[in-house]
Specification:
Blueprint (H helix, E strand, L loop, with lengths): L1 H31 L19 E7 L4 H16 L3 E7 L3 H12 L7 E4 L8 H8 L5 E4 L13 E4 L2 H21 L10 E6 L5 H13 L6 E7 L4 H15 L6 E4 L2 H13 L9 E4 L7 H4 L3 E5 L3 H17 L5 E6 L15 E5 L4 E3 L4 H10 L1 E2 L2 E2 H5 L2
Parallel strand pairs: 1-2, 1-3, 3-4, 4-5, 5-12, 6-7, 6-8, 8-9, 9-10, 11-12
Antiparallel strand pairs: 10-13, 14-15
Helix pairs in contact: 2-10, 5-6, 7-8
GO molecular function, one term: carbohydrate binding
Main location: other
Subcellular location: Cell envelope
Length: 388
């Protein structure tokens, strides 16, 4: 019995000592090892902690792109990110070199935002970006099928949809043209299309969208010309076209945006034609100069807000990180709420698109000003979105 009691005493003492050693070891480890972070559910409060987002895009010498950058900067500030913008002169070769230089740098950003100068020619560089391990987001230029797996998500405009809005504007213009007592120069009416620049896919997409929206009641396209983005390029293109097509009759002009349309108006007026009376002009989206819509020399447009697109694009990037670096399959089209910016308190989708509401001003300057004056999108006026 004594032996058994002694054995039991020894065993108890050993157990006590083991427990003490374990407790001491646990306490020493607690002193040197970091406490594991407790996972938190996203709260929707975007805070990038000052991390960098690098944007690779064409030049802000274009008014739309300059306003896009302002919106992007505002969004980055709200979400506490540092925004670095690297610009090229609408030159894919230049953008390729800039990108290679940036991805070779020792410090990499939290994300890359890719706005290609040439959507097709830039695919090789986009592939290199995707191999860095840094999340890549494409903006503004539609994501090509072969690039789907190279980017986390797309954010910005849907130019095919914008072209469809332009087509709806043209159909409304033709109805009003005939109702005003004008005679169509051909079945469907003669139409001139003013595109952007060669290789810039947005222009091609807007032309395809336009033709899709009008396919059941097509126009007679008498000219389709690359015209650029601004008033001067629209004026030049239309001035060169008029001598060869005027004899056929010019009933309608469709421009990729208000820029070339406003220039075309000047060219038409110089040869004695009256926009809003003899010729009805429409575009897919507003841009910078709204004088054509204000005076009803342009019949209708759409509100693609450059600043809104820039803000939304960076917001998509910030929400990707806030919601656990996840995206939802499919396409999300942001609502065109009038009075206030919607709450984007959820993870982004693979495709994220801004609204482009149709705005028909008609042919009466008084009615045009009233239509523009009462328009609102996300709590801001037509001028807020379209003048910059």
């Amino acid at each position: 019995m004594k032996i058994s009691r002694d054995y039991g005493s020894i065993r108890n003492r050993e157990e006590i000592m083991n427990k003490r050693r374990f407790l001491a070891l646990a306490m020493s480890l607690a002193a040197v090892l970091p406490v594991a972070a407790v996972a938190q559910e996203p709260d929707g409060k975007l805070d990038g902690g000052g991390k960098e987002i690098v944007v690779l895009m064409p030049s802000r010498s274009n008014a739309y792109l300059a306003q896009w950058i302002r919106g992007a900067e505002k969004s980055a500030t709200e979400a506490n990110y540092k925004l670095t913008v690297i610009e090229n002169n609408f030159d894919q070769t230049e953008q390729d070199a800039q990108t290679q230089q940036r991805i070779s740098a020792a410090n990499q950003p939290a994300a890359y935002v890719w706005w290609p100068a040439d959507n097709q020619a830039g695919l090789a560089t986009l592939r290199r970006l995707s191999r860095t391990g840094v999340p890549v987001f494409q903006v503004n230029q539609a994501l090509r099928p072969e690039a789907k797996d190279m980017v986390v998500a797309y954010a910005g405009v849907d130019d095919f949809f914008n072209g469809q809005v332009g087509g709806k504007n043209a159909l409304a213009a033709r109805e009003a043209f005939v109702a005003a007592g004008n005679t169509l120069s051909s079945e469907g009416g003669n139409l001139v299309i003013l595109k952007f620049i060669p290789g810039y896919s947005a222009g091609d997409d807007r032309e395809r969208g336009f033709l899709d929206a009008t396919k059941d009641a097509p126009f007679n396209v008498i000219a389709s010309e690359y015209a650029g983005f601004d008033n001067a390029s629209g004026y030049k293109a239309m001035s060169q076209l008029i001598p060869s097509i005027r004899g056929k009759g010019i009933d309608f002009v469709y421009g990729g945006s208000d820029g070339p349309v406003t220039g075309a108006i000047q060219a038409l007026e110089e040869v004695g034609l009256k926009p809003g009376k003899d010729v009805f002009l429409v575009s897919a989206t507003c841009i910078a100069d709204i004088s054509a819509a204000e005076t009803a020399k342009e019949f209708a447009t759409g509100v693609q807000s450059a600043g809104l697109e820039g803000w939304f694009s960076i917001n998509v990037v910030a929400r990707y990180f806030e919601y656990g670096e996840t995206v939802t399959d499919g396409t999300y089209i942001a609502p065109d709420d009038a009075e206030a910016r919607p709450d984007f308190n959820f993870a982004p989708s693979k495709y994220n698109v801004i609204p482009n509401p149709q705005v028909v001003v008609g042919t009466d300057p008084t009615g045009a000003k009233e239509a523009l004056g009462t328009f609102k999108l996300w709590g801001e006026t037509f001028a807020d979105h379209c003048v910059y």
